[in-house]
Structure formats: structure tokens, C-alpha cells
TrEMBL record:
Stored Pfam families: DUF1759
Region named Disordered: 42-103, 285-330
InterPro entries on file: DUF1759
Protein name, as recorded: Uncharacterized protein
Residue ranges, compositional bias (Basic and acidic residues): 42-70
Length: 330
């Protein structure tokens, strides 16, 4: 009996030891599973961070490339402008050495300059041809200049005393503020980027205005030495979206529908506008207003002198159908 009790105690102790070992194994398995999950989460977080880092680097590279392209574009424009300005300065020096033949100013209208940078070039060309290049005294030129300046532009010369020395100072200050080539180029490019779209095909005046404004800014940029090829692609893609949907569809169906072909695109717009204008003129000629003829109402027969002397009334005008009294009694 004593041996049996001892065996049972040993078996119980061994059973408890096995259960404890199993609990430890299960706890170890749970720790392993937990560590594996933590490792997976860590790797996923690392991959997400790496992907985000690559995206940021790609965006930064794109921004840097775009900035570099813009800098290269402006450098080419300024280099071209510097060459054009040097040639113009040589021509101007040669022309100024030739004495003027007359002191009589031509009779012409010069539009006052109020400070709009896009109006400086036409103003200066008119003022230079009419007054600045003449042989009158500088003080007289300065007097004319003050008369043609208004608004912000007049403030540049308002406090300068009217004398020969200050005239050249005023010209230099105005050219410094409004005549810088890079500022003019930027202003015209901004105007091209902010042209208003035409939504309705029937709005012919808006289409014609868009075409004229487009050509005006392109011509000004060419005068400043900026070739159309430097901005043709960007301008063409923007210009397409300024047209009504029907014109966009016609352009895509045309044989030469390249967005980089600015001349072809402008020619297409001109062709469509002229066709619409001709159609409107034909419609106006066909649809003339018609005036309906009005039927003449019969007039009453005037009474004779003898009838008037006895108190007779003139005969009433003949009426068609029954009289009002007859109609009411019927």
C-alpha cells in the first residue's frame, strides 16, 4: 500500500510538471506569434515610409526640373533680348547723330500714358516720333511730356522742375519703370495665360476679340525678341480650351491639328470667325422685316351746307355687318 501511494504521488507530480511545461510551451508560442505580428507591422510601416519618401523625392525632382526649364527659358529670352537691344541701341545712336531738318511738329494725336505697362511701347513710339526726335529745346519736350502723362506715370515727373536736365532724367526714370524688356515680356505672357474663354459659338464678336488679342500679344513678344517656338506648345494647349466645344471638335477633325502649330491654329480661328460673319450677313439680307398693310377705314360723308343749316348730322361711315345696337337687341 505504501508503494502504491508513492507511485500515485510521483504520477501526480509528473502530471503537474507536464501541464506546467505545456503551459510554458503555449505561452512561448503566443510570444512568438506576437513577435511575428510586430515584425510584420514594423516592415509594413517601413515600406510605407519608404514609398512616401520616394513620392516626395519624385515630386521634388519634378519641381526642380520645372524650375530649371523656366530658368533656361527666361535666360534664352533675356539673351535674345540683349542682342536685339544692342542692335537697336546702335541704330538709335546712328539716327540721333543726324540733325533734324525741321522744328515744326506734325499734327498728330498722342494717347496719354496712365501707367499701364502694356501701353508704354506704343506711347513712347508715338511720343518719340512726334516730339522726342524733333529739334525743339529739351525744356519744351519736357513740357509736352508732362501734358501726355496721367495717373501713376505723372507722379514720376510731377516734382521735377521744368528744365533741360530734368527732361532726360524723366525719360530715364520712365524707361526704368515701364520699359524693361523682361517686365514687358512677363506682362504679355501673363495676358496670354489669362485670356477669357468663349463658350458660345454664336458669340462671334467674342471670338474675333480673342483672335485679335492673341495676335496682338504674339506680335508684341516677337518685337521684344521672343520667338513663338519657345512657348508654342504651352500656348497651343491652353488656347484649344478657350474655344467653344464645336470649334474644338472641328479642330481635332482637321488635317493639321497640332497644338504646337500656333500659326495654323490662329489661321483656323480666323477662318471660322470669317465664315460665321459671312453667314450672319447673309441671314440679315434674307430676313428683312415685313410691314403688314393696314386696311383703310371708310370715312364718314361730310354734311352739306343745307343739311347743316337745318341741324342735320353728317352721314355715319358705312359699317360691315350689324350695328352695336342691333347686335344687343338681337
Amino acid at each position: 500500500m505504501t508503494d502504491n501511494g508513492a507511485n500515485q504521488q510521483d504520477l501526480g507530480a509528473e502530471y503537474d510538471s507536464v501541464n506546467q511545461m505545456e503551459d510554458e510551451v503555449r505561452a512561448g508560442k503566443n510570444i512568438i506569434i506576437l513577435k511575428r505580428q510586430e515584425w510584420k507591422d514594423f516592415k509594413e510601416e517601413e515600406r510605407a515610409k519608404e514609398a512616401e519618401r520616394r513620392r516626395r523625392q519624385e515630386r521634388k525632382d519634378d519641381d526642380d526640373a520645372r524650375d530649371q526649364k523656366m530658368q533656361d527659358f527666361m535666360q534664352r529670352i533675356l539673351a535674345t533680348q540683349a542682342s536685339t537691344t544692342s542692335t537697336s541701341a546702335t541704330t538709335s545712336t546712328t539716327s540721333t547723330t543726324t540733325p533734324a531738318q525741321t522744328t515744326r511738329l506734325p499734327q498728330r494725336q498722342i494717347k496719354p500714358f496712365k501707367g499701364d505697362i502694356l501701353e508704354w511701347t506704343p506711347f513712347w513710339e508715338s511720343f518719340n516720333a512726334a516730339i522726342h526726335s524733333s529739334s525743339i529745346a529739351a525744356v519744351q519736350k519736357f513740357d509736352y511730356l508732362k501734358q501726355y502723362l496721367q495717373g501713376e506715370a505723372f507722379l514720376c515727373v510731377e516734382n521735377l522742375e521744368l528744365n533741360d536736365t530734368n527732361y532726360q532724367k524723366a525719360i530715364d526714370e520712365l524707361k526704368q519703370m515701364y520699359g524693361k524688356p523682361e517686365v514687358l515680356i512677363e506682362a504679355h505672357l501673363h495676358k496670354l495665360n489669362t485670356l477669357q474663354p468663349v463658350k458660345d459659338m454664336s458669340d462671334i464678336s467674342a471670338l474675333r476679340s480673342l483672335q485679335l488679342r492673341l495676335q496682338s500679344h504674339i506680335n508684341a513678344l516677337q518685337t521684344l525678341g521672343v520667338d513663338k517656338s519657345t512657348y508654342a506648345g504651352l500656348l497651343g494647349s491652353n488656347l484649344i480650351h478657350l474655344l467653344p466645344f464645336k470649334l474644338q471638335a472641328k479642330w481635332t477633325e482637321s488635317a493639321s491639328n497640332k497644338v504646337t502649330d500656333i500659326d495654323g491654329l490662329i489661321a483656323f480661328i480666323i477662318q471660322q470667325v470669317e465664315a460665321a460673319e459671312r453667314l450672319n450677313r447673309l441671314r440679315e439680307q434674307v430676313a428683312k422685316p415685313s410691314h403688314p398693310t393696314q386696311s383703310k377705314q371708310p370715312q364718314a360723308t361730310p354734311a352739306t351746307a343745307s343739311q347743316l343749316s337745318v341741324g342735320a348730322r353728317p352721314d355715319p361711315a358705312p359699317q360691315n355687318g350689324k350695328s352695336f345696337k342691333q347686335k344687343t337687341t338681337a
